[in-house]
Amino acid sequence: MYKVHLKPGKEESLKRFHPWIFSGAIAHIDGEPEEGEVVEVYTAKKEFIAKGHFQIGSIAVRVLTFNQDENIDNDFWTWKLQTAFDMRRSIGLTDNANNNTYRLVHGEGDNLPGLVIDIYARTAVMQAHSAGMHLDRMHIAEALSQVMEGRIDNIYYKSETTLPFKADLYPENGFLKGGSSDNVATEYGLKFHIDWLKGQKTGFFVDQRENRSLLERYAQGRAVLNMFCYTGGFSVYAMRGGARLVHSVDSSAKAIDLTNKNMELNFPGDTRHTAYAEDAFKYLDRMGDQYDLIILDPPAFAKHRDALRNALQGYRKLNSKAFEKIKPGGILFTFSCSQAVSKENFRTAVFTAAAMSGRSVRILHQLTQPADHPVNIYHPEGEYLKGLVLYVE
C-alpha cells in the first residue's frame, strides 16, 4: 500500500479525527498512487495515523479509518453501512409506513467521506463525490444489498456530475441492481415523483423534510409563495396545511413540470395552486404584496470560498425583496445550502436585508438539516444547511 508522509505538525487535525488531509500538508508520497486508491498516512515521525482514499486536488486524502489494522474490504463497507442504518432505525426513519424517504449515508457525517445514499421507497440512489467511492461502488452496492435485504429492490448509481472531472473516471449513471421505473416515494404521507435519472442531487431534496413539515403548521389560510420550488416540496406541504393559495416559481420548466405532477399526485384538480417558470428576481420585482408566507430556498450561491462575497450579496438582495413585498404579519422561511457560507455569514446577510427594509422582524425558528444528515462532531463543515423562520410586522 502506498504511504503518504505529512509535514511536521500537520497531523494535529487528524489527532482530532478530522477526515480530510489537504495537499499542502503532505511532505512526500512513497510511489505514485492512482486516484481513488487506498493509502496509509504517516506523521513526520513515521507514525501511522490514518488510512483513506487518495485523490489529486485540494483534499488529497479522505480518511476512512484511523485504525491501521482495519482493511478496506467488503466487511468494512458492510459494517459502515450497518452502522448508518442502525442510527436511522434508532430515530424512527426506517420502518415508518408514513415515510419511506430518508438519507442512509451522509458522507463525513457517517464517516464515509465522498459517499451519499438516499432511500426512496424500494430504490436506493447512490452518489459518489470522490474517485475512491466511485472505484469502490460495486463493493458498496454489494454491502448495501446485504444490509438492506428485503427493504430495497433497486440501486441506482448517479455520479456523472459529482465526481472531479480531472480524474478521467467517465462515470455512467445507471442501475447497479434492479431497474424499476416506479419513482414515487412517500414523505410524511405525501407522495412525490423522484427524478433520480436527471434531477438535482439524488432526485429530491431530502434535507428539507423536517422544515417542510414545520411550514405546514404555518400555512393555514395564508397566501404562499415558494421561490426556487424545484419539485414543489414546500408547496405540497403548504397545500395540505390549508393554504388559501400557493404559487410555485422556478427558472426550470422541467422543475415546474415535476411540481405540477407532484401536486396532481396529492391534490388532483385543486385550483389553489399555480406554478410559474420564471427567473426568481424578475418574479420578485413584478409581484405585488399578496403573499403572507414566502419560502426562499435558492441553490447554493457559493460552492467555494472564492464566491463568498458575491453569494452574500445575493442573499441580501433576495431577502431584501422578500422583506419589501411580504404582507404585515407575514412569515418568511429563508435558507442557505452553501457550505462555504457560515451560519454567522448567512444571518448577517439576512439581518442586513431586514434593516434595509425598515421592517420589524423577529426570529421564530433557527433551522438546519435533519437527523439523517448528521454532522460529524469532528467535521463541523458538514453543517451546510442554514435556515431562519421570521415574523415580519
Plain-language structure description:
The structure is a single chain. The protein is α/β, with parallel strands linked by helices. It has three domains: about 5-65, PUA domain (Archaeosine Trna-guanine Transglycosylase, Chain: A, domain 4); about 75-190, Transcription Regulator spoIIAA (2-Layer Sandwich); about 205-390, Rossmann fold, CATH 3.40.50. Helices cover about 30% and strands about 25% of the residues. The chain has ten helices and 20 strands. The protein has helices at about 10-15, 75-90, 130-135, 135-145, 210-220, 235-240, 255-265, 280-285, 310-325, 345-355, and strands at about 5, 20, 25-30, 40, 50-55, 60-65, 100-105, 115-120, 125-130, 155, 175, 185, 190-195, 225, 245-250, 275, 295, 330-335, 360-365, 385-390. A seven-stranded mixed β-sheet has the order 16-15-14-17-18-20-19, sandwiched between helices. Helix 2 packs across helix 4 (about 135-145) and helix 5 packs parallel to helix 6. The longest helix has 18 residues, at about 310-325. The chain is globular and about 65 Å long. The termini are far apart. The relative contact order is 0.09. The mean pLDDT is about 95.
